[in-house]
Amino acid sequence: PYFRIFNPVLQGEKFDSKGEYVRTFVPELAKLDTKYIHKPWAAPREMLEKAGIVLGENYPEPLVDHGKARARALAAYA
Q: Rounded to whole angstroms, how far apart are CA atoms 18 and 27?
């Protein structure tokens, strides 16, 4: 069978491509470049510094590796 596995990063990029929702409700990310608004952990350090973001201090490190989580979910239903 086919399973849909929700990926919040892809959903954000698809439905909030400019990051307006994120900037409104996650003010810590408001100054971050749109390219990284849905995945700030992937932004270059200089860009994070410019936006005033310190991962692990004023914005959390990722809690879930969505690639690994997807693989586990698919394996569980294989």
A: 15
- Could you state, in order of their start, the residue ranges of all structural domains in the chain? 8-76
Cα separation values, 45 from 35, 42, 67, Å: 14, 9, 22
3-state SS class at 55: strand
The pLDDT assigned to 2 comes to: 67
d(CA 23, CA 62): 18
CA 53 to chain centre: 14
The β-bridge partners of 55 are 59
The yes or no reply on domain 8-76 and CATH 3.30.60.50 is no
Residue 12 token pair = 């954000």
- Please give the average pLDDT of every successive group of 10 residues along the chain, which has 78 residues: 82 97 97 97 97 97 92 87
